[in-house]
Amino acid sequence: MISVCLADNLPVVHFGVKSYFRDHPEINVVANVAEFPLILEALKNKKIDVLVIDLELKGLKNIFDLKSLISNNPNMKIIVYTNLNEQVYASNFIKAGMSCFLNKSSKLETLGITIVKVAYGLNLSETIRGFPNYRSGNEIYRKLSNREVEVLRFLSNGKKNSEISKILGLNEKTISTYKLRLLKKLNVSNLVDLVNKANNLVLV
Hints:
This protein is α/β, with parallel strands linked by helices. Helix content is 51%, strand content 13%. It has eleven helices and five strands, in the order βαβαβαβαβααααααα. The protein has helices spanning 11-20, 36-45, 63-72, 86-95, 108-119, 124-129, 139-142, 146-156, 161-168, 172-185, 191-199, and strands at 2-7, 27-33, 50-53, 77-82, 100-103. The protein is elongated.
């Protein structure tokens, strides 16, 4: 059996996923957590083959938290399971070592297929290109750095520079610099257009 930990803020997601896989012949959801620190507790007590995690999980500060998980648990695969836009965010998280980036609009059947494939070490490109919801990504977004992606994510969630600086451990001037870079790279002139472009990008 493939042991899965589901890390998500929403109880309805936990209920739905656990119910769907209750009688699955290959998948066993052994842990459900609603905060990032609880993943570490689960790893101490259980063998986890695949972590399914939402990028908006409470306590998840940045991409380096996930890279640390991979470094300390090299046999565990991570599937990003989120509503965030694939074209904007997927490339950086894949490059950081995540096994797959799957949008929550996907069917639970697709999630199950993905879990099995990554657990058995299927090549990443084969894993995600086989699903209709995956898109290769706009080249503009693929050129964003990890930090720029993180700042964009928090800006899209309505956070101010001061809040982002505290979360990422950077000063406000640095956050302002990242914001200016994002405006330039995404070819927009203000924060509203920047957020709209990230949140409402049409997948083609």
